[in-house]
UniProtKB/TrEMBL annotation:
NCBIfam families: transpos_IS4_3. Residues 21-79 form the Transposase Tn5-like N-terminal domain. This is IS4 family transposase. Pfam families: DDE_Tnp_1 (PF01609), Tnp_DNA_bind (PF14706). It comes from the Bacteria. PANTHER family: TRANSPOSASE, TRANSPOSASE TN5 DIMERISATION DOMAIN-CONTAINING PROTEIN. Residues 309-378 form the Transposase IS4-like domain.
Length: 478
């Protein structure tokens, strides 16, 4: 252990004994920058960004000296996203290790778009209304419980495109299935699967979940190679059996194995119900014709779920899932369908990044600086999402799970208890609701649990008020 990391560990241990360890301490404990000063600056920046989500760097830093220091950190050649996120990755592994049961790893790609006079400093994504768009693509892997509680990020990959290429025009010239996976952007799915599986060090517990973009035969083979599992939505009607027919041909012969009723929302956000027909079968799946000499056939289970009838105010639900997990009954199939339904949570995480942290409003000029900034915001966004979901999955947990004792005392002073609150006074839910009330949550009897927006607003207000209280204490002390 380096001297800098050892000093930070000793300082963290001291804060633990005094009860004032913060979330920043937990998410940076495993970081080891090339310079001790960079580590200190990162801890300070993470706390500042987490306490004032969505604001510009000058507004967060307040003065030119701190603002300049923030810009220097983000542009420092000795700082990259791996340095920034390594502590969070370690914390993710710690949270996952402390639990039992399956770990669902949700994979998805999102794009951050920016308007710049010199888009070549970032990377091209296309043209809109005659104006060249530039942006950064991010493929993230979020580890969650089967109840949807996010442990944290387990892998992440950033990249840019130096030259925009029309995908449709490219497909006319070459069959994409014959291009080696190493030469395609989709290699990111394989890289993140391997990285996240290695990080959590429990391949048998991990289930990698992806949308139709993850329907990649090489991904299935890699999962088999490293001993982990996958559950993806398919978009390719692959060859099956002896190669004389496809998956669709076999599934047409499968009868409905059961029904499952779920609650959904229509296009206007109103509650609705859907009755799903479930079919499943274990099949021998063949690789693409051009790759059959390189990859083996696999025995996988196909799950088809289709809504009975035709809804009036929303799209009909129809999922075709592919997995290497055991599915022997209707109960097993419903479990896998419910696991896949949690995939949207990574889209919520991306929404917090864009709407809460307002990444795309940043004025930083180069891709390298923007990537460093987004990496910091990823940790901030995870914290908001984690607190929101922790309140729903473990409402009776101790408030110290997510908050420090000074924060708890401040909330008790700021937000008075209501008559119905006293029975939950020593629970996490009690204080998360107080934070949400600072962010505009009304907390009426029939209101749903607070969402991410009121949580991040409330955390920002709590930070501002806490700073004011500290300043007042200093003034009174003098």
């Amino acid at each position: 252990m380096s001297l800098a990391l050892k000093e930070r560990a000793e300082a963290r241990a001291q804060r633990l004994t005094t009860g004032i360890e913060t979330w920043v301490d937990r998410e940076t404990a495993g970081c080891e920058f090339k310079d001790e000063r960079l580590g200190r600056r990162f801890c300070k920046l993470l706390g500042q960004f987490g306490g004032d989500m969505g604001q510009s760097i000058p507004l967060i830093c307040q003065d030119w000296a701190n603002t300049k220091a923030a810009y220097r950190f983000l542009s420092n050649e000795r700082v990259n996203e791996a340095d920034i996120l390594c502590g969070h990755f370690e914390a993710t592994r710690g949270r996952a290790t402390a639990t039992e049961g399956p770990i669902l790893i949700l994979h998805d790609t999102t794009e951050f778009s920016f308007k710049r006079e010199k888009p070549d400093l970032i990377g091209f994504t296309g043209k809109t209304a005659g104006r060249t768009q530039c942006g950064i693509l991010m493929h993230s892997s979020l580890a969650v419980t089967t109840e949807g509680l996010p442990f944290g990020l387990a892998a992440i990959k950033f990249w840019t495109r130096k030259k925009f290429k029309g995908t449709t025009a490219l497909k006319r010239k070459i069959n994409p299935t014959r291009v080696p996976i190493e030469q395609k952007e989709s290699i990111r799915w394989l890289e993140n699967l391997r990285q996240s599986t290695d990080l959590l060090a429990a391949p048998g517990r991990c289930v990698h979940i992806g949308d139709r973009e993850s329907d990649i035969y090489e991904l299935f083979c890699l999962a088999d190679e490293v001993g982990t599992h996958f559950l993806v939505r398919t978009c390719v009607d692959r060859l099956a059996g002896d190669g004389n027919h496809t998956i669709a041909d076999e599934m047409d012969e499968v009868t409905v194995k059961g029904l499952h009723r779920i609650k959904v929302k229509d296009d206007k956000g109103d509650p609705d119900e859907a009755l799903l027909e479930i079919r499943f079968r274990k099949l021998r799946i063949l690789p693409p014709i051009g790759k059959q000499k390189k990859y083996p056939a696999l025995t996988l289970t196909v799950i088809h779920t289709q809504e009975r009838g035709r809804p009036k105010r929303r799209k009909k639900i129809e999922w075709k899932l592919l997995t290497d997990l055991t599915v022997q009954s209707r109960k097993d199939a419903i479990e896998k369908i419910e696991w896949y339904s949690l995939r949207w949570k990574i889209e919520v995480f991306h929404k917090i990044l864009k709407s809460g942290c307002k990444v795309e409003e940043s004025k930083l000029r180069t891709a390298e600086r923007l990537v460093n900034l987004i990496a910091v915001f990823c940790i901030v966004s995870w914290r908001v999402f984690w607190m929101t979901m922790l309140n729903r999955s473990s409402p009776n947990a101790l408030p110290q799970t997510a908050l420090t004792d000074p924060e708890i005392r401040l909330l008790d002073h700021l937000v008075k208890d209501r008559d119905g609150d006293r029975s939950r006074r020593n629970t996490l839910s009690h204080y998360v609701v107080k934070i949400a009330r600072l962010g505009g949550y009304l907390a009426r009897a029939n209101d749903p649990p607070p969402g991410n927006t009121v949580i991040w607003r409330g955390l920002s207000r709590l930070t501002d008020i806490g700073l004011g209280a500290a300043i007042e204490a200093i003034i009174m002390g003098n």
